[in-house]
Design goal:
64% of the residues lie in helices and 4% in strands. Helix 1 packs across helix 3. It has two domains: 76 residues, no CATH class; 73 residues, no CATH class. By secondary structure, it is mainly alpha-helical. It is built from six helices and two strands. The protein has a two-stranded antiparallel sheet with strand order 1-2. It starts with a helix and ends with a strand.
Length: 160
């Protein structure tokens, strides 16, 4: 169903789709004006045409919403993966700084336990907010409750 929704949305976003509808509606209206002795099957307020166009709009909007929802989910997964990659990079940079500057001159603001907790998926976000004030002892700080807090809390503080 998702593939069908994506395909239909892609087709509906083309110029050909617009031109087809403009031509079809023009023919429908001219046919039902009674010009040329053609029999009218949908006289002037064009009730049948209105119903068909309304149904098409309803279904098309549903398919567009389905496609947007799917793309939103994909974007969220990409953002989560980017966050995890950035956290891993931060950990590697911190290790490199420790090696370069010497272990005594660098203090990490989070331990491995914080790092592993910060890479949890978004489904456990409510448990993070419930346990926000709980300390676990690495740097005597509370566990952050949002992704931005987790990212901001990971870092390096250089001491003089």
């Amino acid at each position: 169903m998702q593939v069908f929704a994506r395909t239909l949305t892609e087709k509906a976003a083309t110029t050909g789709f617009f031109i087809f509808h403009a031509v079809a509606f023009s023919i429908w209206i001219v046919w039902n004006l009674g010009i040329g002795g053609l029999p009218q099957f949908d006289p002037f307020p064009y009730g049948l045409l209105t119903m068909i166009v309304s149904l098409e709009a309803i279904f098309l909007s549903l398919f567009v919403l389905m496609t947007q929802s799917r793309e939103s989910t994909i974007a969220e997964l990409r953002e989560e993966m980017t966050l995890q990659v950035n956290l891993r990079i931060e950990e590697e940079v911190t290790k490199t700084l420790q090696l370069v500057a010497g272990r005594k001159s660098v203090k990490i603001r989070s331990c491995a336990r914080c790092f592993s907790r910060s890479t949890r998926d978004a489904s456990s976000e409510s448990s993070w907010s419930r346990s926000r004030t709980r300390f676990h002892g690495c740097a005597q700080r509370s566990i952050p409750n949002t992704t931005s807090d987790r990212v901001a809390s990971l870092g390096v503080v250089l001491r003089a």
